[in-house]
Amino acid sequence: MFTDVGGLKLLTLAVLAIIVFGPDKLPKLIQDTMGFIRKIRSFADTAKEDIRSELGPEFKDFEFEDLNPKTFVRKQLMGGEEDPLGLKGMKDSLDIRSVLDDRPASVVNAGTVSFEKPAPAAAPSTGAPLQSGERPPFDPDAT
């Protein structure tokens, strides 16, 4: 959320806060703000615990981060594995230093690669083939 806030921006905000609120009111303002943030966090934690207790024991490993669509899709596509596509092995086998030094790449982890296509899976039979000029049946669920 605030990933683009650097040191100079924080320093500018601090100087601006001192100018606007003054050095005598600023500590009280910071204390009140921190108390407000603590209350919001405790409210959110209590709400999460209430939801988990209402869902029951079958949802004990439920994570609220999974409600984020990106996280949900990533988890469903990648499964529970750390690296199902084997990209970590490919990354480990690359020798980046040789590329940066303009040297020929050395083989770190030699493996075999097959360029043959696997046999296509047979399509499931859905019924009798259509006659010429015959229209396919209407499926309201497919539209």
SSE topology:
Layout: H1 7-55, H2 69-78, H3 87-93, H4 96-100
Can you tell me about this structure?
With 143 residues, the protein is an all-alpha fold. The chain is built from four helices and no strands. The two termini are 39 Å apart. The mean pLDDT is 78.
Detail the poorly predicted runs: none
CA gyration radius, whole angstroms: 29 Å
- SS content category: mainly alpha
Q: In percent, how helical is the residue content?
A: 40-55%
Average pLDDT score:
78
Number of beta-strand segments: 0
Number of helices: 4
Give the overall silhouette: extended
Largest sheet: none
* CA-CA gap between termini: 39 Å
What fraction of residues sit in β-strands? under 5%
Oligomer: single chain
**Helix-strand string:** HHHH
Task: Provide keyphrases for this structure.
143 residues; mainly alpha; 4 helices; extended
The gist of it:
The protein is an all-alpha fold. The protein has helices at residues 7-55, 69-78, 87-93, 96-100.
